[in-house]
Design goal:
The chain is α/β, with parallel strands linked by helices. The chain contains 9 helices and 14 strands.
Length: about 300
């Protein structure tokens, strides 16, 4: 169950009102506070909502709003007009849990089915297939439920590009979805790393739940700098700053023809990330998904056969 269940705890609902052109940047910013995901509603404005918690005091509402204000302040005024329109309210954990579960259903991406632990498969209106690969996830307080466009992009590319026996590094593993999927697709060894110890713990629990702990290792790390070479495929579903910053390290870890699949990039940040990738002589092919984009990068040399 995400975050446990204690009657005295609350979750803080943060909603940011913004013009449509700022929705991707606001969503990316709010995900830093709401790792379980965000929702958007549209009328004349876009209303982006996330949940922060769990908390034990209503005093945390003001603190959460202040944190959201600080994060959103990095978005240029021309994109997100001031004053910032942020509302914050406390909700009992029972109400938050009901909302959370109602928003997370089994998600199919090709052969892979991301199934929350509280759901059955096949779900109503769905049909199981003989080659389904079920990835059962309890996201806890870690990012990754299979609904976000960048997660779906990574799952699509893994199915298209991963070779049996490949060594895969999942950088920013969150709840462990991509690491587990890679193992079930035939990776020989997988290392998932995340800066957040809570995410690493959640990922390890999910790895064990899916019975792939013989091939998947989880560790706490916020950079590729200390990782030794020898990986065939690196997937980084993080944010544009880290994707660009770690391009040199990713190249160092891969053989000629290796793949650096990087995403989590709002479309408004596409060019700055592309320039950083090209500066490391990586062949980068964009993979846009609505308001987000990613890049399939290969190191120069013989292509993977």
């Amino acid at each position: 169950m995400p975050g446990g269940h204690t009657a005295s705890r609350i979750w803080i609902r943060l909603t940011v009102d913004c013009p449509p052109q700022a929705a991707d940047a606001v969503g990316a910013a709010l995900l830093r506070l709401s790792p379980n995901g965000i929702t958007t509603e549209h009328d004349e404005m876009v209303h982006v909502t996330g949940y922060v918690g769990p908390c034990r005091s209503h005093e945390a509402v003001a603190a959460a709003r202040a944190r959201a204000h600080d994060i959103l302040s990095s978005i240029p005024d021309k994109l997100l007009p001031r004053p910032l329109q942020i509302t914050a309210a406390a909700e009992p954990e029972e109400d938050w849990l009901e909302v959370f579960r109602s928003q997370h259903r089994p998600e199919r991406v090709g052969r892979i089915v991301i199934k929350p632990t509280w759901e059955r498969w096949p779900a109503a209106g769905e049909r199981a297939r003989p080659d389904d690969l079920i990835v059962e996830i309890d996201p806890g307080l870690a990012f990754g439920t299979g609904q976000h466009p960048t997660t779906r992009l990574c799952l699509e590319e893994l199915q298209d590009r991963l070779r049996p026996g490949d060594r895969v590094l999942d950088f920013g593993c969150g709840s462990g979805i991509l690491a587990i999927a890679a193992a079930k697709l035939g990776a020989g060894a997988v290392l998932g790393i995340d800066l957040d110890p809570v995410a690493a713990r959640v990922a390890l629990e999910n790895v064990r739940r899916n019975e792939v702990d013989d091939r998947v290792e989880i560790a706490v790390a916020g950079s590729l700098a200390a990782i030794r070479p020898g990986w065939d495929f690196i997937v980084a579903n993080i944010n544009p700053v880290i994707v660009a910053r770690e391009a040199a390290n990713a190249k160092r870890l891969l053989p000629p023809g290796g793949c650096y699949l990087c995403t989590g990039i709002p479309i408004s940040r596409e060019m700055e990330v592309l320039e950083a990738l090209r500066a490391e002589d990586l062949e980068a092919v964009p993979r846009p998904r609505g308001e987000w984009t990613g890049f399939v990068c290969t190191t120069r040399g013989d292509s993977k056969s």
